[in-house]
Design a protein that fits this description.
By secondary structure, the protein is α+β, with helices and mostly antiparallel strands. It has 6 domains: 2-103, no CATH class; 108-181, no CATH class; 199-370, P-loop containing nucleotide triphosphate hydrolases (Rossmann fold, 3-Layer(aba) Sandwich); 377-478, Translation factors (Elongation Factor Tu (Ef-tu), domain 3, Beta Barrel), CATH 2.40.30; 488-593, 3-Layer(aba) Sandwich (Rossmann fold); 600-694, Translation factors (Elongation Factor Tu (Ef-tu), domain 3). Helix content is 34%, strand content 28%. It has a 6-stranded mixed beta sheet with strand order 7-8-6-9-10-11, sandwiched between helices. The radius of gyration is 34 Å and the shape is flat. Mean pLDDT is 81; it is low at 50-56, 65-83, 102-115 and 229-237.
């Protein structure tokens, strides 16, 4: 179902033209907001198709007529018109495909997985026309049935669940209420496709490793040897993500700048990788960055393959590398572990085919699938601004199919897919799951890790983008939503049974001692999981990992730099610093039991400006004041500010309005104020009223 206006937008026609055509076809429409049934849409499509074919034939006849002497300018114009018609025809085919998807929009947009064709979904305030569409019958048929039940209605009338249930039963079907889904929050949109709708998709692979261990060389070798399409002068990699063909199967590789960027994307909810390859040089072995890569790869919770590179160089010792990596929990499968190891030379290509075979093996075991027949969902890999084309976005389609002309929302921006290219820079009409693409058409530049989703109409995409912008502003004002030790107890009560912790210490012995102490804790069946335990100062990489894994950062005998502190604050990460092990354990136990000592903060209530002074021997000095902001309360704390300097801090002993003693006075009113144990007030002094409140945990 769609309105006349929406249909006109969809086929790029004038609304009046569509209304006229509807009336010619005998449709009962009154204005641009009138609803069109699926039958109406099909008939309209057919009618408009005929019109375009007629025009197409006319242009061809004009061009083919030899007796008409057309000059080059006219020829070009006619050919351009023909090209436009053909382009519209292609666009119409795409629109038809999208309409086929729309038939299932109750499943695509609400995420309801329905295998039983006898189930009909009911939405709140559902119109009779919509129910008829879902039942596959005409609106007039349902209106007649309702009339027999004593209910007067038209196709735009909302129908109650009870009445809809009666109608649906008449067709031997069952009515169910669909679960409400906040489609504006599609980062957390959990896809639940029926098995029958799923098809195999290519695995998405990321290669990570220490600098100079051969990541770029391996990626280059795979791309040059396995990409099916060759171009003059070699292969052009248009974007930092590409697909290769291995024995008739595709594999998608994402080329990320490094583990920090990879984890930043994960921290923003962009879990794009199915398999991670950790590359380690056989002559270097495990290096400092290798250890960090292992932590980030494990945190991603996906299968890991170790590629021991440079086996052809002097000093290569693959067995030594395997022993070193085993200490970090990557036990080789040949030794009884669950990590696949491959010995390779990225330079010569030795062992690379076996590595690719292992990727396909894991892919087959994991059974990666997706539903191509839904609105596309995916993630931005990178973006840039072109002065001619505007924002250019490299993205990965993770589910559904993205088509040319699809309205999409990316991050908080929206637009229509104006151009769609594959990883070789070739124009394509559609992109399937696990396909890397380059698109234009957005109004703003998104950032790596932003999720995107295609929508039914540009109007809907705009609405979703605007709501997402509002939510982003609210989230920014409220601060980051990450875990701290203070709110740990409430998280546990909500069902979290594992607490993630990152430990940085001055020496290895201290790091191990803190790690063992925390991992041995078990309070109310809640365990502490140490995501990383290492020696050295707290780094920005630690902060990034803490954000991605929702961890608490613990420093033992180390201190973060001001830059790291700022980075942690910006990302809402709590850093706890200790120099006594039992204090770490005590705080963690107290937090897990909800017994942390209360913390307090100051809350300013209001301000008063002293306008006039009255001195009485029994009372002292009364400040005739005007409340300039907020509220002033009796017995609340107060500080006297003179020329911007606090000269006294005490409390308010009395408040008076005219002749009456009062408990509080609001902004815009005058009153008399006395300060406990202080009489040295002067005109123009500021009395700031505040209270100390306990911070809720």
């Amino acid at each position: 179902m769609m309105t006349v206006f929406e249909y006109a937008e969809d086929v790029n026609k004038n609304v009046e033209e569509i209304l006229k055509k509807c009336k010619e076809l005998g449709f009962k429409v009154t204005d641009k907001n009138s609803l069109l049934s699926q039958d109406d849409i099909t008939e309209l499509d057919s009618s408009l198709e005929d019109t375009e074919e007629e025009l197409d034939n006319i242009v061809e006849k004009i061009i083919e007529k030899k007796e008409i002497n057309l000059d080059n300018v006219v020829k070009k114009e006619k050919l351009k018109k023909k090209s436009d018609f053909l382009s519209k025809k292609t666009q119409k085919e795409i629109a038809t495909q999208r309409k086929e998807m729309y038939k299932h929009k109750e499943k695509l947009m609400t995420n309801a997985s329905i295998d039983d064709g006898n189930i009909v979904l009911y939405t709140d305030n559902m119109a009779i026309a919509e129910l008829a569409s879902r039942l596959g019958v005409t609106s007039s048929e349902l209106i007649k049935k309702l009339f027999n039940l004593g209910v007067l209605a038209n196709l735009n009338t909302s129908i109650s669940f009870e009445n809809a249930e009666i109608l649906v039963l008449d067709y031997n079907k069952e009515l169910k209420k669909e679960a409400a889904v906040d489609i504006t929050n599609f980062e957390e949109y959990e896809v639940n496709d029926a098995d029958k709708d799923l098809t195999v998709r290519p695995p998405v692979v990321t290669i990570m490793g220490h600098v100079d261990h051969g990541k770029t060389t391996l990626l280059d070798y795979i791309r040059k040897s396995k990409v099916a399409d060759y171009e003059a002068g070699g292969i052009t990699q248009a974007i930092s993500a590409y697909q290769v063909d291995v024995k008739g199967n595709k594999i998608t590789f994402i080329d990320t700048p490094g583990h920090a960027a990879f984890t930043e994307m994960r921290a923003r909810g962009a879990s794009i990788t199915d398999i991670i390859i950790i590359i380690v040089a056989a002559d270097d072995g495990v290096m400092p960055q290798t250890k960090e890569v292992i932590d980030h790869a494990k945190a991603a919770n996906v299968p890991i393959i170790v590629a021991i590179n440079k086996i052809d160089v002097n000093g290569a010792d693959a067995d030594k590398v395997m022993h070193e990596l085993s200490e970090y929990g990557l036990l080789p499968d040949t030794w009884g572990g669950d990590t696949i190891y491959n010995k390779i030379s990225a330079k010569t290509g030795e062992g690379v085919d076996e590595l690719l075979d292992n990727i396909l093996l894991i892919s087959e075991m994991q059974d990666y699938k997706a539903n191509a027949n839904r609105y596309a969902i995916g993630t931005v890999v990178e973006s840039r601004l072109d002065k001619h084309l505007g924002p250019i976005v490299t993205a990965l389609v993770q589910n559904g199919t993205l088509r040319m002309g699809d309205p999409i929302v990316v991050g908080t921006s929206y637009g229509k897919v104006r151009t769609l290219k594959n990883d070789l820079g070739k124009e394509i009409m559609e992109a399937l799951p696990s396909m890397p693409i380059e698109i234009t058409g957005l109004g703003e530049i998104p950032v790596a890790g932003d999720k995107f989703m295609a929508f039914e109409s540009e109007k809907q995409a705009k609405s979703v983008a605007e709501q997402r912008k509002e939510k982003a502003k609210e989230a920014e004002n409220k601060g980051k939503n990450t875990i701290s030790l203070d709110d740990l107890f409430s998280k546990i009560k909500e069902g979290n049974k594992e607490v993630n912790v990152i430990i940085k210490a001055d020496v290895h012995g201290s790091a191990e001692a803190v790690k063992n102490s925390l991992e041995n804790m078990n309070i109310e069946n809640v365990k502490v999981k140490v995501v990383r335990s290492s020696v050295g100062n707290i780094s920005e990489s630690d902060v990034v990992l803490a954000k991605a894994t929702n961890s608490i950062l613990i420093g033992f005998n180390v201190r973060p730099t001001s830059t790291v502190k700022d980075h942690a604050k910006d990302n809402g990460i709590e850093i706890r610093l200790y120099n006594i092990i039992y204090k770490v354990v005590e705080d963690m136990e107290a937090a897990m039991k909800g017994m942390l000592e209360p913390t307090y903060e100051e809350k300013v209530l209001g301000e008063a400006s002293v306008r006039q002074l009255f001195k009485f021997s029994k009372v002292g000095t009364i400040a005739g004041s005007y409340i300039t902001d907020g509220i002033v309360k009796k017995d609340a704390k107060a500080r006297i500010i003179r020329d911007g300097v606090v000269i006294y801090d005490g409390s308010i002993s009395s408040l008076q309005r005219e002749k009456d003693a009062v408990k509080e006075v609001k902004k815009g009113l005058e009153c008399g104020i006395t300060i406990e144990n202080y009489n040295d007030l002067k005109e123009n002094d500021i009395i700031e009223c505040y209270e100390i409140v306990e911070v809720k945990k």
